[in-house]
Design a protein that fits this description.
Radius of gyration: 23 Å
Shape: globular
Structural class: alpha+beta
Largest sheet: 5 strands, mixed
Helix content: 10-25%
Number of helices: 3
Low-confidence stretches: 1-40
Number of strands: 13
């Protein structure tokens, strides 16, 4: 059903293009008016910190149809001391790592209630060296960050409600965050907020 709805504007665009090419003529044979066909505007993908994403649709079964926005507001690269005090075991395989903290406002726009943890699931940190990493997931126990408490903890939002959260990402020691990205599946470019903007 959704594909048919999206196909209609494409057909209309072809008709408009044909009208723009042929134009109209009066009795004297001169063209009247100038219909112009323009390429579809590209969707905005670059944002400044504090700017909200376009509405995103939930991919979770329990909140199917929910719409929400994601607004990264602040990005800070942590230190080795933050890592040492986090309670995490050192990962010898990946070498020394440090945290990158991302503060985000999540706003539920419409549809069924949705867990906060699911609303920021597609956030990625890209480093200046081009490495991309998803949020830290701790399987047993939890990591504790002095300036970045885990406030989500199964909380749900309903339409009109917002939550401010902080999420930790791990990057190799010595690298810095260049941007926060929000992936949008395979067929759309990710949205991007420059870390220093």
């Amino acid at each position: 059903m959704r594909r048919w709805i999206r196909a209609v504007p494409a057909v209309v665009g072809v008709v408009a293009l044909a009208a723009g090419v042929t134009g109209c003529t009066d009795k004297s044979g001169e063209k009247k008016g100038k219909a112009r066909a323009s390429a579809p505007a590209e969707e905005k993908t670059a944002y400044r910190l504090g700017e909200a994403s376009p509405p995103q649709e939930s991919t979770q079964t329990a909140s199917d149809g929910a719409m929400f926005t994601v607004t990264p507001t602040r990005v800070a690269t942590g230190t080795k001391t933050d890592m040492d005090n986090s309670g995490l075991q050192k990962d010898e395989k990946n070498g020394p790592q440090i945290p990158v903290f991302v503060w985000t406002t999540l706003t539920h726009k419409s549809g069924p209630a949705m867990e906060v943890d699911d609303m920021d699931d597609d956030l990625v940190v890209r480093t200046a060296a081009g490495m991309r990493t998803k949020a830290l997931l701790v399987m047993f126990g939890k990591a504790e960050w002095r300036n970045c408490p885990d406030a989500a903890d199964g909380k749900k939002l309903s339409a009109g409600q917002s939550a401010q959260i902080c999420t930790a990402f791990l990057v190799p020691e010595g690298q810095t965050a260049a941007a926060v990205e929000l992936t949008q599946g395979w067929h759309k470019k990710p949205l991007e907020w420059a870390a220093g903007a």
